[in-house]
Amino acid sequence: MNMDEYNCRLLSFVPRALDGEAERWPVDTLRPEDMAGAGFRYTGERRHQADSVTCDFCEMQAWAWEAKDDPFEEHQTGSPNCQYLTTQLFKDRHGVFLLKREATDKASPAASNTVDEILTPPVTPVKPKAGRKPGRKPGRSMVLSPIVTVYDSTPSDDQKQNAVHRETENSPIEIAITAGGTKFTIQVADVGPRGTKRRRID
Hints:
GO cellular component, one term: cytoplasm
Strand content: 5-15%
GO biological process, one term: regulation of cell cycle
Pfam families: BIR
InterPro entries: BIR_rpt, IAP
Region (Disordered): 119-141
């Protein structure tokens, strides 16, 4: 059991649909970090069991979550022989969950923030689509940012001649990109004569 498996489970709680219709974890009182830490992956559907989760280790499914529920105890009660329950990650995440719950019960926001190791980023606000059916939850829309040409790399005739001379000198060509105080340099060296054949590598 490693953090990669935990991160994969955590990602299942993040809406990722391109059309803005992705499912979102509907239970505000149970954090996705806690559900993933308890071994659950989000498998909910809009029409049927919107808060359904599944453990990939024991295949236990659970739904109808309430604010008072402890996903770690629910997993232990529902599937006591699950191999994930014996891992250190399960124990560590359960400890964080209990501390967070205790701090929340004491109603001290300062104490709650000190226990909160992993923050869930806020959901990106989305403008509702025109003509959306009433009662449907807004999803997340993804928009590609425009591509801006900063530099046109078409060489002039003089530059073409310089490139020919450079190729014969066997010195690498440097391409430097600077953005916000960071300089990124690419060196391109010609390792041999260029041919007319093109090969496709799959």
